[in-house]
Backbone:
């Protein structure tokens, strides 16, 4: 584990009014759930277009997309991915025909059957260098529609794709959102969330959420709990049900104040209420006694941008400090490029707990020496 950066100002802070966490990549390893679901869905969609791709290149592309700070929602990432595949396809018939099936569950089941029917057919492998360059050249804060338009460069293709994906309609109404959530959650959790069954058979069996692992350790939670007087909270783009499914007793034991736990994934399509908007943090902070700064711990562009937006707004009487969790040197460099907006950069949330503990111990020794 590595500490890439810790500002002098941040190192002097001994207590926080609250410590608020993002989930994916911070509390939970979602690389085998949400990230893999993007790959699974993208592979399925691209296969109907006669295309295939290298998984490592796809992950690099997703990384650039998330640096924009507006892709907290994996549905948006899948929509942009599909736009790229659609722009490269020579024959789009197998996708273009899907909207002709009026009942959504039948459309999704038919999609799955079509994917199986072309499974053994030879595909054309496409690189991601071109689209990654397009995305990396965009301004921070660029949203899904503008990214799709830049990729497709054709209004009729944009309209075709909107009809095929029926996005941004939510789960139960739209093809893209429903397919993705079936793949992620599987039959049991999906039904608990939405009250109806998956339309897919093999793609939702058993559900990638079962592959998730907790990152945060009990000893780290003890340190965090002590540093904020027990005010541990969450702001995440995940819905509540799957988050609690993975965290289990960790959530019930340590995150004891529901009013500072916000699951914006339950209303992801309301863009004014989700990261990088400052509103989620402002909602949480109003339930804190703001005698000390607030700490937000995240691992993505939208996490940093939310903290930046809160501090710039002047609507909070306390400063929100941001810690970036960088699982790779590339992500650490990204956070470093944001300068003073990233107060601390570590490779793992448990390393952050150790850092706070060392700082507190150092202060104790200094005071004792005096």
Residues:
């Amino acid at each position: 584990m590595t500490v890439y950066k810790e500002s002098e100002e941040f190192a002097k802070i001994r207590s926080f009014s609250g410590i608020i966490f993002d989930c994916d990549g911070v509390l939970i390893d979602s690389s085998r759930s949400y990230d893999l679901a993007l790959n699974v869905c993208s592979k399925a969609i691209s296969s109907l277009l006669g295309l295939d791709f290298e998984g490592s290149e796809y992950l690099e592309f997703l990384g650039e997309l998330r640096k924009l700070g507006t892709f907290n929602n994996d549905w948006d990432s899948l929509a942009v991915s599909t736009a790229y595949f659609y722009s490269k396809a020579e024959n789009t018939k197998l996708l273009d025909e899907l909207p002709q099936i009026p009942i959504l569950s039948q459309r999704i089941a038919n999609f799955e059957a079509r994917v199986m029917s072309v499974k053994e057919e030879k595909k054309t492998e496409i690189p991601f260098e071109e689209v990654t360059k397009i995305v990396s050249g965009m301004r921070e804060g660029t949203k899904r529609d503008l990214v799709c338009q830049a990729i497709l460069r054709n209004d009729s293709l944009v309209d075709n794709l909107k009809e095929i994906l029926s996005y941004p309609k939510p789960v139960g109404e739209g093809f893209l959102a429903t397919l993705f959530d079936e793949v992620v959650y599987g039959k049991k959790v999906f039904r608990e969330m939405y009250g109806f069954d998956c339309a897919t058979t093999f793609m939702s069996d058993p559900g990638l959420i079962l592959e998730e692992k907790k990152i945060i350790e009990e000893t780290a939670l003890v340190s965090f709990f002590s540093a904020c007087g027990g005010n541990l909270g969450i702001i995440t783009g995940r819905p509540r049900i799957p988050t609690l499914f993975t965290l289990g007793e960790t959530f019930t034991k340590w995150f004891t104040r529901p009013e500072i736990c916000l699951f914006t994934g339950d209303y992801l399509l309301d863009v004014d209420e989700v990261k990088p908007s400052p509103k989620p943090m402002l909602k949480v902070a109003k339930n804190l006694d703001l005698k000390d700064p607030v700490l937000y711990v995240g691992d993505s562009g939208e996490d940093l941008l939310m903290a930046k937006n809160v501090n710039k707004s002047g609507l909070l009487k306390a400063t929100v400090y941001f810690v970036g969790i960088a699982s790779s040197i590339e992500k650490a460099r990204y956070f470093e490029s944001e300068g003073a907006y990233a107060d601390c950069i570590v490779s793992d949330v448990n390393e952050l707990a150790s850092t706070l503990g060392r700082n507190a111990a150092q202060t104790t020794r200094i005071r004792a020496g005096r």
User: Anything to note?
Assistant: The two ends are 33 Å apart (CA to CA). Residues 363-370 have pLDDT under 50 and may be disordered.
